[in-house]
Amino acid sequence: MFNPVLTDEQAALADVVRQLGERAIRPILHDGGRATPADLAGVWRDLYEMGLTAPVNAEYDGQGRPDPGTCLLIAEEIGYGDPGVAYDLVSTCQAALLIEELGTEAQRTAYLPRFAHDPAFSTGVAYFEGFGRTPQELGAVAKRAGEEWRLNGRKVGVTRPSEADVLVVVTADADSDQLAVFAVEPARCTGLEVARDDAVTGKLGLDAVKTGCVELREVRVPETARLSSHGSDSTRTHRAIAALRLGVGAVLLGTARAALAYAVEYANTREAFGHPIAQYQGVAFPLVETDSEIDAARLQLWRASETIGSSADDVAIATSTAEAISRCQRAAMEATRIGINTLGGHGFIQDHPVEQWYRAAATLAALDFDPLESDCGVL
């Protein structure tokens, strides 16, 4: 049964993760800086030591895998500290999840212990294309060629594209109506190119994570690279992909909370006409409404997580996921906009971090944009 109340263990974990973000990330943002991967290397090490970067079960030498609700909670709290770090974390965790859920025993044995033991092991998921929810909509395709597969397409928002030891690539099977997922080692194949390094070309947001656009041009991988331990069990694949997307939704909620909390603090200390501006309805009401919308979006996100865990209907999984993501996008875009408006002219300058959260929310919303569900106006 769906229960939105946190357990004592979840509440304690949320506090620890939130404090990590406030201690290690916020000082950079409050100094008017933009957190980069180099700045936050220590944060990643702390997350690794806590077992949060590699949700691997004990049989593969990990510290255990949290339940889906706890994973969303962790993503939101890290997103509260910095959405870039959180997006990196979600991508890494979901790479491990996809391998564990869909991979053969040989694939699990080959990769999962590396997640658990090697903090330098670099990975990510190549899924997003800016659109596409079903195999029929994804532009990246995989076609069998004898004992090999040939992958073609373009992926955006790929984490660590230039340094990944393994990328989990999600494509559509050209010969069926199913998704085909592969564990691709860039060093062992040709045709996988980083078409755009976002740090070089300029980024709207998510400065703390290395992202880029990856081109797949006749990338040849062996049959053993396909994550196919369950054959044609499409539901298991759709559940795993939905978990990735919901994780990004949780990051959006963390970003929204960060902007709202900063705006509330500012409104309580900034005075106009002899009173804190929070005492004026024109300032207070939008903040209260935003807080309620964030809570509503979180409930829908958690409900969607429960749905994908129990449903065997691929359409129901995709629909509930898309609706929850859209709700989180709207909440984050509105919260960060309200944050900027509350600060007035100060909201647009780098002296305050709300403009960074606004850009991060827009970037995350654009990654998983569904025009049939979303009306947050980010494109």
At the fourth CATH level, what is the homologous superfamily of the largest domain? Butyryl-CoA Dehydrogenase, subunit A, domain 3
The main pleated sheet reads as:
7 strands, mixed
Q: How does the overall form come out from the CA principal axes?
A: globular
Q: How many distinct folded domains?
A: 3
Structural class comes to: alpha+beta
On the 0 to 100 scale, the average pLDDT is 88
Helical fraction equals 40-55%
The percentage of residues in β strands lies in 15-25%
- For the record, the CATH architecture of the largest domain stands as Up-down Bundle
Sequence of secondary-structure elements: HHHHHHEEEEEEHEHEEHHH
Please provide the count of β strands.
9
- Give me the Rg, rounded: 20 Å
CATH topology of the largest domain: Butyryl-CoA Dehydrogenase, subunit A, domain 3
Low-confidence stretches: none
Distance between the termini: 37 Å
For the record, what CATH class of the largest domain applies? Mainly Alpha
So how many helices? Answer: 11
What this model shows, in words?
- Residues 7-116 form the Acyl-CoA dehydrogenase/oxidase N-terminal domain.
- It comes from Amycolatopsis methanolica 239.
- Residues 240-364 form the Acyl-CoA dehydrogenase/oxidase C-terminal domain.
- It holds the Pfam family Acyl-CoA_dh_N.
- GO terms for molecular function: acyl-CoA dehydrogenase activity; flavin adenine dinucleotide binding.
- Helix content is 51%, strand content 15%.
- The strands form two sheets. Strands 1, 2, 3, 4, 5, 6 and 7 form a seven-stranded mixed sheet that branches.
- It has helices at residues 8-24, 26-30, 41-49, 68-81, 83-102, 105-117, 198-201, 234-269, 281-310, 314-343, 354-367, and strands at 123-126, 141-145, 148-159, 166-173, 179-184, 192-197, 211-222, 271-272, 275-276.
- α4 (68-81) runs antiparallel to α5 (83-102), α5 (83-102) runs antiparallel to α8 and α8 (234-269) runs parallel beside α10.
- With 379 residues, the protein is an alpha+beta fold.
- A hairpin with a 2-residue loop joins β8 (271-272) and β9 (275-276).
- It folds into three domains: 8-117, Acyl-CoA dehydrogenase/oxidase, N-terminal domain (Butyryl-Coa Dehydrogenase, subunit A, domain 1); 123-225, Beta Barrel (Butyryl-CoA Dehydrogenase, subunit A, domain 2), CATH 2.40.110; 234-367, Butyryl-CoA Dehydrogenase, subunit A, domain 3, CATH 1.20.140.
- It is built from eleven helices and nine strands.
- It is globular and about 75 Å long.
